[in-house]
Structure formats: C-alpha cells, structure tokens
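Case 331 in the screening queue. Each case pairs one protein sequence with one candidate compound; here the compound is phosphoric acid mono(formamide)ester. For every case the pipeline is the same: read the inputs, emit a complex structure as tokens, and attach any notable structural observations.

Predict complex for case 331.
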Amino acid sequence: MRHLLSTRDLRRDEAIQILDLAEDMAQVAGREVPKLPALRGKTIVNLFYEDSTRTRISFEAAAKRLSADVINFSAKGSSVTKGESLKDTAQTLGAMGADAVVIRHGASGAAHVLAASDWIDAGVVNAGDGTHEHPTQALLDAYTIRQRVSGTGARGAGLDGVRVVIVGDVLHSRVARSNVWLLSTLGARVHIVAPVTLLPVELDNWPVTVGHSLDEAIDESPDVVMMLRIQAERMDDSFFPHPREYAREWGLDDARAARLGGDTIVMHPGPMNRGLEISARAADSVKSTVLEQVANGVSVRMAVLYLLVTAPGSDRGVSAGSTRGTGGEQR
Ligand code: CP
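Case 331 output:
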C-alpha cells in the first residue's frame, strides 16, 4: 500500500489485512512499555489544515508507539497564514525528510493532489479531505463493529450481513462516504437515514438503501446505529428549520435509545453535538462505542502507518510482513 486516500478503491482483502494487523497492534497497548521498534528511524509528518482532536492525536500516538519520529504541523500558526501554498509547505517538509504524511485539508481531493505530486517522496494518508473521505475513521469503525457485533469477531472475517444504519448529515460527511464504501466492501448492509436536504446528489450510485425515518429504522432492529455530526461549519445555508426540529426528527434521543435492541451498538465519530444528533444519555450509555472507537483508532492507525512505510517498493528500508517478524518484540 503506497498511499491510503480512500476506502472506495480498497479491496476486501486489503481492508481485512489492516483490521487483522490492527488486532496485533492492539496487543501492544496492553504491554508495560506500549511500544514497537518497527518504524525506528522513520519520520511521520502530521499535516493538519483543519482542526482535529482525535485523528491528529491518535496518529501521533500511533507513530510514537511504532518508535517513529513525529513532526506535527498545524496550518494555524504556520506560514500558511502568510499565504504559503500546499506545494511549498509539502516541499519544505519533504526537505526535512518524511516517510509518511498524514494530511487533513478542507479541500476535497487535497490528499490525492499531494499523493499524485512530486512535491514530497512519502506515503500519503488522507486524514479527512473536505466532504470527500476519511478512510482511517471508517477502518476504525469497521474494526469496532467487528469487535462488538456478535458473530463477526473472527480474524480474517469481514462484516457479512451486519446491518448498519447511518443517520444524519450525510451531505457534508466524509465519515459517511468512507463508511459506505468500506462497510459495503466488507459485506455489511448499509441503510441511510437523513432529511432530504442533507442527502448528496450522487446517492443513487451508492450501495445503500435510503429512508427518512429514524423511528422506522430502529423498528428494524439494526446491529449498528451510527450517528453523524451536524457539520454547522460547512453549512452556509439553512438545511433544516431549527435544531430542535432536527433533534426531534433525526436525533437519537433518550426515548429512541431506549427502544434499541439489547445488542445494538451506538456509534459516533466525534466530536458530538450533545442534545442535537445524540442525547447525552445515549452518548454515555453502555451501548455507545464512542470511546472504544477512539482507542481502536490508535491501533488501526498503527497498522496503516506500518503498512505504508514498510510497503514493498517504498524504498524506506523496512521489510513488509506481520509485526511479529519485524521487530515486534517488546523493548
Ligand atoms: N472523528 C474525527 O475525525 O474527529 P476529529 O475531527 O477530532 O479528528
């Protein structure tokens, strides 16, 4: 794997390889010294043009657990505010030496542009580009589903037959797009619930069913209810009359959460708008996997960084294969 830009072009065997390797990486967290020497001498650059808490910090934690050096770059406080371009920024970071670049950018396609350029010789991970994709979020969501939904937990397995309902602001959600492609590739059945104003025009080409009633979706006893954040920062128009109306029609409130089946899990990528798309009680309930998703994000990102930096042909000097054979011993 040279770059990870999208889940749309990720094959099932590639996705399962990442999930299985993430399971190995999760073992490291339980050790007295939660570190592997696998990427010692390698440099990971976190290039963040948009705000982030979970993604940026978990990529940093993942790189450090693999013993890589980490350079954190935030556009705020950098020469980007003086007008420096992505090309010049990437070339500057490349001159300092980078084996992988993790990029979050407000423009859809920014990660693809960087990966296709000769500005920097490094693997590129898309950590969220505009409203396009957020592949590692979908991978950590799939990992969490495989752990939590009964009948799916086996190594090497996909998510065949798992019923997932994705609810809310699909129009602006890169999380939704990446999940739709990945979960479908892994065999899950995805149902989208949203107001018509928050559905994208390209929806007809997606491998999903679509409805507008969260109550009807809950009546079908799904395995997973994934709530999406209302992305107010991307809304320059009025997409629903009032937050109270949105919460009433499409929010996972206390009453709806109480109607969920005993084995149904509630997911949210974070950050959450408590009281809008999800009630505080639903977010903090035993059904909620919000914090498990965060923890799993470190393991999944360790797997992704490892595969990228050690990919055959990457000329980065670390042999590919399982962590068990590549310095996976505790040090
Ligand atoms: N889920 C997610 O991408 O969160 P952050 O914006 O905090 O990284």
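Case 331 observations:
- Residues 316-331 have pLDDT under 50 and may be disordered.
- Residues 52-55, 128, 137, 269-271 surround phosphoric acid mono(formamide)ester (CB under 6 Å).
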